[in-house]
Specification:
two-stranded antiparallel sheet; 14 helices; about 325 residues; alpha/beta; five-stranded parallel β-sheet
């Protein structure tokens, strides 16, 4: 009786939040969270929707700072950015330095290539050859995404990523952190560079047994995305109408990719090559694959990782590629 009169247990039970109130609070928090995520600036290093900012950065580097007027335009993601030295191509093709532009940048692919080209058409009126660098996995998408399904761990990862974005945006808004910028500077040669010290690819990293488990995990449940196939076919036709010859190029990956043990990768890569060949045929373009044994030496020292070349590796490939272009009668006519 005494305890009841002091603590008033009956009144305590009446102030517990009701279920509708709890749901309302949850909805308000979710709306605030989504608003913070969707409408605040995102960190370039992780945010997939920051690709438009990357286009603007490339535009500034090529057309504002360097004022290029290219005859040869290189397009693609990081494989293009770090894999082709435009200065070497210009010298081999007897072009001026400002006539070859490498517009490659990490993750810049698919619709953003067309976005870049169409936005800068006034700077690209003299382009006669567009070199589009494609990866072995350029046309692949997880089956779950194609079917509109998300596995439970994908949902958790997506939610975790949003939490990270929200925390980042809050810190920037409160002045606790400066905005992160993705910065792969343009070297004097016109090729992108990795910031900081150069990483070397260890031979241990390329042991087929070790490499196989990583690749199988990456390529598992992936398949050719017909929407991407259609995009590249349409984009190539679009360039052709503008009088631009299109050459799709696959830059060599590390020789470990040639291992017979990588059966899943080899199967999917075969599908990729067939799809790229069809794209080239349907769009009246050209497709050339360069393998590690194409005629120049590539090894552990020339690779930063399994698919990206060190500057010396890029220079070696660029020299070989430029000589190949010179030998092609078709490209002699347009350059």
């Amino acid at each position: 009786m005494y305890l009841s009169s002091i603590f008033n247990f009956e009144s305590l039970t009446t102030v517990r939040p009701t279920l509708p109130r709890t749901l309302l609070v949850a909805v308000v928090l979710i709306v605030l969270f989504e608003s913070l995520f969707r409408f605040s600036p995102q960190p370039w290093t992780e945010d997939p929707i920051s690709l438009a900012k990357r286009v603007e950065l490339v535009e500034t580097d090529l057309f504002v700072k360097r004022q290029l007027k290219p005859t040869v335009l290189i397009l693609g993601s990081s494989r293009a950015a770090f894999g082709i030295n435009p200065e070497i191509l210009a010298k081999s093709l007897n072009l001026r330095g400002n006539q070859v532009a490498n517009a490659g940048y990490p993750s810049l692919e698919d619709i953003f290539l067309k976005h870049f080209f169409d936005r800068n058409i006034e700077h690209l009126t003299e382009v006669t050859l567009a070199i589009i660098v494609v990866d072995e996995y350029y046309l692949m998408t997880p089956k779950e995404d194609l079917e509109g399904k998300k596995l439970w761990f994908d949902r958790i990862f997506t939610f975790r990523t949003k939490i990270k974005f929200a925390a980042y945006n809050l810190k920037v808004a409160l002045g606790m952190q400066k905005p992160i910028e993705l910065n792969f500077p343009l070297a004097e040669s016109g090729m992108r560079l990795y910031p900081g010290s150069q990483k070397r690819f260890s031979p241990l990293d390329t042991a087929p047994e070790r490499f196989k488990s990583n690749l199988d995990g990456y390529f598992k449940n992936k398949q050719i995305d017909l929407e991407k196939v259609k995009f590249y076919e349409t984009f190539a036709k679009h360039l052709n109408k503008l009088g631009v010859t299109v050459l799709f190029v696959q830059i060599p990956s590390h020789p470990v990719f040639e291992s017979e043990k990588l059966r899943l990768y080899r199967s999917l890569n075969h599908q990729h090559l067939e799809a790229m060949s069809r794209i080239a045929a349907e769009s009246k373009s050209h497709f050339q694959v360069f393998l590690p044994d194409s005629g120049f030496e590539l090894n552990d020292k020339t690779f930063r990782d399994a698919v990206h070349l060190q500057p010396e590796g890029a220079n070696a490939f660029s020299s070989f590629f430029a000589a190949w272009l010179v030998d092609q009668q078709l490209f002699k006519k347009i350059l």
